[in-house]
Protein 1
Amino acid sequence: MTADLDAIREHGYVVIERLLSDDALAAIRAGLAPHLADHLLGRNDFEGHYTQRVYSLVGKGKTFEDFVEHPRILAVCDALLESNYLLTASQGIQINPGETPQPFHYDDAFYPLPRPRAAVSVSTIWAVDAFTRDNGATQILPGSHAWNDAEVVTKLSSVDFTTAPSDARVPRPPGALPAGWRDLVRDVTMPPGSVIVFLGTLVHRGGANRSAASRLAFSNQYCQPWARPQENFFLSISPERVRTMSPRVQQMLGYSIHPPFMGHADGVHPLRFVES
């Protein structure tokens, strides 16, 4: 645990290899298969026109609930976030052949707080398939979590954040990066079952898939208890489903009170609405 935190604080991330067993990976693939069968693709360059996303993954089965509260991940969150922290996003991600790189970004850019700063969120990306340089391995800029606001503006200004229709997308050449970034970017190649854990301020992107096969992953993100989550789990996961979940997952979905009274519902604890 100490080594995980030391790496995150110094570099902005840590890679933990082979944290999931083959049986766990098989369960994840089986759980995602019916949702991926719909073959719903992204709507812009950020989601990816050749990328499939399964949102509110935590609500799609017990397997995914279990990984939200994986003890090694929660140990990192316990150290970096305040108690009562929340789940802010949970999704499956399949990058299909022909996908181009995402724009470089950082996950909690929508929180308008000066950088550099203490963590507002912690992200995870789990490799279900191996991450390789050819199939869309996540690309990161180590140390970018410590950039100040001026550095972010300067260094990301050269990146094209515009969207394009799918028929106008032309895959970029292998290794194409903004000027001066070639020596900064690291491809996070990982065997199946591995996970990268990183601060919400770390600059990264999904890579291009130049291979002939899809690359499957899932991502859970956590945020401070006073920050608004990206996904509205109150609407995307039914009360009946929430009722079957563990107390820790219920709490992270927002069925909790952050002292003194943030999160109440009509003056009472929100769990009262799913327990009745």
Protein 2
Amino acid sequence: MKNEGIIPGYHGIMDLDVSNMDPRYIKQAIEQHENDIKIYNAEQAKLKPEHRYENTILRINKQREYVQMKEKEYLDTIEKESLERNKQYNIWKKKFKPIYP
């Protein structure tokens, strides 16, 4: 689904929603949005690399996604092992039915 009326932002700049905006101001708002992105890029270029957005916030988000992926893999492994133990137990219970009902 395409988001009509949404102008994408850039890193630290939010998307611009012009869907409910007065049509006579849309062009000006888009120009201002693009200008803000240019200014943002110029400010980021002045910063030391370790202080730039892509090396701080984006790096942290990538690390968080990696940790979440590893946690999910670990939990899936535990779940599979548990399921396998339950299957083995049920097979064992079928083989050795109790003598007394």
Protein 3
Amino acid sequence: MIIRQLKLKLTKKQEKQLNDWLWSLTGVYNWAIRKIELDAKDKIFYPPKTFQNLLAGHGKTLDISSHTVQGILVQAYGAWQRCFKKTAKKPKLKGQRNKLNSIPFPDPIKSPINNKIKIQGFGNLRFYKQGLPEGKIKCGRIVKRTSGWYLCLWIDTVHSFTVKNTDTSVGIDPGFSTLLTLSDGNKIDNPRELRKGELRLAQAHRSRNYRLVAKLQERQANRRKDRNHKISRMLVENYKSIYYSNDNFKGLARSHGKSVSEAGLGQLIGMINYKGRTGGRDVIPVNSKFTTMTCSSCGAISGPKGWTGLKVRTWECSECGSVHDRDVNAAMVILKSGAGIALESKAV
């Protein structure tokens, strides 16, 4: 299953209709969120199918496809399920500051013809020309962004790409001054999209041009995502086994602020993981504890320690005398630790 998105060419009538649907579906979502919360206090819980059919027949009243209304109920139900399982926070009501920006279409969709695609319950939509992989389109979702309207399609097909026939392994040390450092000595620079665009973003904030603010933030997110896709694809294509430092990026962001957030390392690691599975690669997380302090030559913990040690980029091992680049050494330690984990798992 892969997801592809198409940028839509909407008429004014279609755009108005979608905006009206978003307004009505916001009310449906908020009703569902409050109903689950209030009924849970009275120990009343609903099975998924029962809750999905609570508003049966209301689609005609709202002039919206009944399956779309059910899709919104499923979305609200899922938000509370994640909260009850303590994997997410309590869902918030949608409003002016927290808008509902997508409309689900859970029914299968026919393949597009001549840059037109038919959505059940809505009609034909035109989109900018784009190739789609062959496969059955299971469902879709129309998303409203600052740059326009998009149709996200869930296509039942296998995402595959060519990988090199190699036995090379690599250790990866994520960073912030340097985005990634590899155990073979290669370093991938951090483009710092946020720092480069923060002046223009600050000007837009001061002028209270919030539409421009949203456009600039979306552009930065797109650039970050594009960069991470290219880097993860390169790593999966060239290395058979990939070992990475399993850092807590959310915790680091609380300590180091936007230096961590702008790097998008969590997103990058996630892409390496799913592309590794697709390409038949081994992607293994390694505990990051002591990786920057351990000598990759002799294994002694003799490297720089504490907050002050973060400034030290090159150090000499007091045990064996080896001189190390801090990041390259950490990547080499990760490679050796990861290879040991892989051997233990195979032995079991």
